[in-house]
Design goal:
The chain has 512 residues and is α+β, with helices and mostly antiparallel strands. Helices cover 65% and strands 9% of the residues. It has helices spanning 20-26, 29-56, 77-88, 90-107, 112-118, 121-136, 145-162, 164-173, 177-216, 228-264, 267-328, 339-356, 370-377, 379-396, 420-435, 469-485; strands at 61-65, 68-72, 360-367, 402-407, 410-416, 439-440, 450-451, 455-462, 491-493. The two termini are 59 Å apart. Residues 1-12 and 498-512 have low confidence and may be disordered.
Length: 512
């Protein structure tokens, strides 16, 4: 099993979203009840918790950070919607997030139009979160340090994007300068901490079992996303925008509060504004450090994935090239070496003869009266005879021998470490075996159910004085021609000089 696909994280790469249509058509009754019932319960819980946030004043709570104040907003729907987004898709988390924020905004006195726009803030952050996991395909089980190093910075980027709602809140309520920064900072810091401290453990606890269910029920999910390179570039662009927007808004609001305090000549307000500006600068430093680490981690994962995909592509390409090379050297009908590969093998055998003075021989075979087989039984029967002969050649040859189809119904066998008497004995055994091996065919119109055939074989040896393999082939072809002239179904041996041979007639290709 792949290291990524361990039992704790059976679905390391983000699948498609859970399809409502597939769930309704293909899902079991228990699955529909648990998922749809749980989702509706989550929507109700998010709406109630959002109203509680307004009533209890859990927005912009000051927190002492060693002499500097920071602000925190506690908004419980955040980890719930995060869980639905990472487990089942963006829409499953965005709908509860939007409805909860919309109801909250109406309860706080916003107009319907502003409330509808304001409610898009948290779905925007969840969209960045979903985009990050789709672009990288990182494990969501959070069972390793690597998974957390991706999850934590991505939660920050999502929190910064969602905190755009704070700007709408400040504008719609016309808040003074000293109240704008707590809303802004409390939003993104609260969303970030709740995502990491509550949403992260929730994912770590529930994902192992949930991933097994997803692996067992892929029919309920849309296909995995494509175009991850474009999504990765989109994520990096989003991170750059988030850092720039965060720095601009944070330092801008801090500077606005400081300028307001300077204009009022109130030393207490000036001291408070200075503390806020100092804390803002330090928080920005740590946020920037976190983003740098995230970009480094993202780049490492993207590079690793690119290297793995490149290695897989190179391996696949090498395998395809090997298959193409094998096909270019193999006869498609018989599976034997084709003429080009056979001649290359015979040249290598001739080099061995010249170097080591080892005896080697060559047999050339031709099917007798092959044209009659085609005319009487059809070309399918002719192909069956050729395939049968090839099987006999394979079964009769050793690993060091070189059987091949030379063209039409003509075959050759290069016999390594074989002298002329041994080659003749082999040829006789081969001829007898072929004559005793009829080929079963599909009888038509009451015809024969099998075809018996014979071969004529010419035998010669490879000599170290041969200028090239063409001389050896000429001798073998002349010997085979003599076998046909001598009555067919016989073996002839020829071991004279190639230059003294008479010109043999061209191959018969079915007319012999």
């Amino acid at each position: 099993m792949d290291a990524l696909q361990r039992p704790a994280d059976l679905v390391p790469q983000t699948p498609g979203s859970l399809s409502v249509r597939a769930l309704w058509r293909e899902g079991r009754a228990a699955e529909r009840a648990w998922l749809l019932g749980g989702w509706l319960a989550t929507i109700a819980a998010c709406v109630v918790l959002g109203l509680v946030t307004i009533r209890e004043g859990w927005s912009g709570i000051p927190v002492d950070l060693g002499g500097a104040n920071a602000f925190l907003t506690f908004y419980p729907p955040v980890p719930l919607c995060l869980w639905w987004t990472l487990c089942f898709g963006w829409r499953w988390g965005a709908v509860p997030a939007w409805l909860a924020t919309f109801v909250l905004a109406l309860a706080a006195g916003m107009t319907t139009a502003w409330a509808a726009l304001f409610a898009c803030a948290n779905p925007l952050g969840l969209g960045v979160l979903a985009l990050g996991y789709r672009a990288v395909g990182a494990p969501r089980g959070l069972g390793s340090l690597r998974a957390w190093l991706f999850f934590v910075p991505l939660c920050f980027v999502a929190a910064v994007f969602s905190s755009s709602g704070a700007l709408i809140w400040n504008f719609s309520h016309d808040l003074p300068a000293h109240r704008q920064l707590p809303i802004w900072q409390g939003w993104w810091l609260g969303a970030f901490l709740q995502s990491v401290l509550l949403g992260g453990p929730l994912m770590a606890l529930t994902w192992p079992r949930l991933s097994r269910w997803i692996a067992a029920r892929p029919v309920l999910f849309t296909p995995p996303p494509t175009g991850r390179r474009a999504m990765g570039l989109g994520l990096l662009f989003s991170i750059v925008l988030a850092v720039q927007g965060y720095g601009l808004v944070s330092l801008g609001l801090g500077s606005l509060q400081l300028r307001t305090a300077l204009g009022s000549h109130d030393w207490a307000k000036l001291d408070e504004a200075s503390r806020v500006m100092l804390s803002t600068a330090w928080v920005f430093f740590w946020v920037f450090t976190l983003i740098v680490l995230f970009v480094a981690q993202f780049g490492y994962q993207a590079l690793s994935r690119w290297l793995r995909s490149t290695e897989a592509l190179v391996t696949q390409l090498a395998r395809v090239n090997a298959e193409l090379e094998q096909r270019s050297r193999t006869d498609g009908l018989t599976g034997l070496a084709n003429r080009m590969a056979t001649e290359e093998g015979l040249r290598a055998l001739l080099r061995t003869v010249r170097r080591y003075r080892t005896p080697s021989a060559l047999l050339m075979l031709d099917i007798d009266h092959f044209k009659e087989v085609n005319d009487r039984h059809g070309h399918a029967a002719g192909d069956a005879v050729i395939r049968s002969l090839a099987q006999v050649l394979k079964a009769s040859s050793r690993d060091v021998d070189l059987p091949g189809r030379f063209g039409g119904e003509e075959f050759v066998i290069g016999l390594a470490h074989t002298d002329l008497p041994g080659a003749r004995r082999f040829a006789e055994r081969l001829r007898e075996r072929i004559a005793a091996t009829p080929v079963a065919i599909d009888p038509k119109d009451g015809g024969a159910a099998s075809v018996a055939y014979t071969v004529s074989i010419g035998v010669t040896v490879l000599r170290d004085s041969d200028p090239g393999i063409e001389d050896v082939l000429r001798r073998a072809d002349a010997a085979m021609y003599r076998a046909k002239e001598g009555g067919r179904n016989r073996v002839e041996v020829l071991d004279t000089d190639a230059a003294s041979l008479p010109e043999a007639p061209p191959p018969t290709s079915g007319n012999a």
